[in-house]
Design brief:
The chain is mainly alpha-helical. Among the domains are: 108 residues, no CATH class; 94 residues, no CATH class; 51 residues, no CATH class. The chain contains 13 helices and no strands. Helix 7 packs antiparallel against helix 10. The radius of gyration is 27 Å and the shape is globular. 19% of the residues are buried.
């Protein structure tokens, strides 16, 4: 029996066209999903946050004493504990936070006065540019411009309403995911047709749950320790409301890179309006940077190790992308989403090549600087 070269080339061309069509459809589907997630961020973002939180808390559902209780009761206890912790933190920090919010206008004016030597030349340049603009315009008649703005109060009420609705979606969905988590897992596995697919689905769900819970629980403890260290250091140098800045440092550290910059800017601002000496004012952001270096270079690598190492460039791009998509909540969820994607890609053969780019651990047999390990 002889092979027909024309028929083989025709079959190969058909397969290539089918593969290109499938790739194009996959790209279009991803773009459609991302576009929908952008438009419906007030719904999709809290749903994603609830899914991530459920993966974190599901191992606790199987631990004593929760495993001896009905799932609905265990979920209710966990959600109530979360709400209680948030309410206690808000009650403890509300007064100093409100005080500083009220001091912001006066603090900005005080900072402007302290930086008058720098601001005076800038102001002179601004006045000169205004004079040049008046000379070029001549005696042209003034144009009346009417700008209609929505009142600040209505904007604040609308924002609070949206965020409150998103938080309600998060809490309610988290409860149902915890209460019916085992049932959902069993149905996802049962939906696979072949036995190998069922085992693969079971393995992926276990891996996501293990990786996400281990990573975020470890990061939460590390960030809490970082907040305590920064708070005590700022209290030692006499910065007021050090507990507030320590709590802010713990929360900001959930957003790599951007959280460090925001925390240093915040403590530097407070330092400059609190202390008269520039050296003492700069001590606050310097301590903030010092403890962040200790955390990022020594504490986190020693606790998490290579298992949860991610490519720094990919992490940065993920924060930028999800922060642009969903704002602050997107920046907070950027790394957990990346961990989930990396876990899924590592378990699926056609997508494993993407996991190689996300993974930041050195290749086997090499140090972190790329040099070979000693024998």
């Amino acid at each position: 029996m002889t092979n027909n070269p024309d028929a083989e080339r025709a079959a190969e061309g058909t397969r290539n066209r089918a593969m290109r069509a499938e790739t194009s459809l996959a790209i279009l589907a991803v773009l459609a999903i991302l576009y929908t997630a952008y438009l419906a961020q007030n719904l999709v973002a809290p749903v994603t946050a609830a899914v991530v939180a459920s993966f974190i808390l599901m191992p606790l559902m199987r631990a004593a004493p929760f495993r001896f209780l009905p799932d609905a009761l265990s979920a209710a206890i966990m959600v109530t504990a979360i709400l209680g912790a948030l309410a206690a933190a808000a009650w403890a920090l509300a007064e100093p936070a409100a005080e500083w919010m009220g001091r912001i206008p006066a603090a900005v004016e005080e900072l402007r006065q302290k930086s008058g030597d720098i601001a005076e030349p800038v102001e002179a340049v601004r006045r000169a540019s205004e004079q040049m603009r008046e000379l070029t315009q001549g005696d042209q008649p003034d144009r009346e411009v009417v700008v209609r703005e929505t009142s600040l109060l209505s904007q604040a009420v609308e924002a609070v309403g949206q965020k409150g609705a998103s938080f309600l979606v998060f809490i309610v969905l988290l409860y149902f995911l915890l209460a019916t988590g085992e049932l959902l897992r069993a149905r996802v596995i049962r939906s696979a047709r072949r036995l190998t697919d069922k085992e693969k689905a079971r393995r992926i769900l276990r891996s996501i749950e293990r990786e996400i819970s281990t990573y975020l629980l470890s990061i939460s403890l590390i960030n809490a320790g970082l907040g305590v260290a920064i708070g005590l250091s700022l209290w030692a140098i006499g910065l007021p409301n050090a507990a507030l800045w320590g709590a802010a440092a713990a929360l900001l550290n959930f957003v790599p890179y951007a959280g460090l910059a925001a925390g240093m800017a915040l403590t530097g601002f407070v330092g400059f309006i609190t202390f008269d000496e520039p050296g003492r004012a700069l001590l606050a952001p310097a301590l903030y940077l010092f403890w962040n270096i200790i955390e990022s270079q020594f504490v986190t690598p020693s606790i998490l190790g290579r298992r949860h190492t991610l490519n720094a460039a990919v992490v940065f791009l993920s924060i930028v992308f999800w922060g642009w998509m969903w704002g602050v909540i997107g920046a907070v969820l950027a790394v957990p989403i990346l961990v989930m994607l990396n876990t899924c890609f590592a378990q699926i053969e056609p997508l494993r090549k993407f996991s190689i780019f996300i993974d930041g651990s050195p290749p086997r047999g090499q140090n972190t600087n790329g040099s070979p390990l000693p024998d």
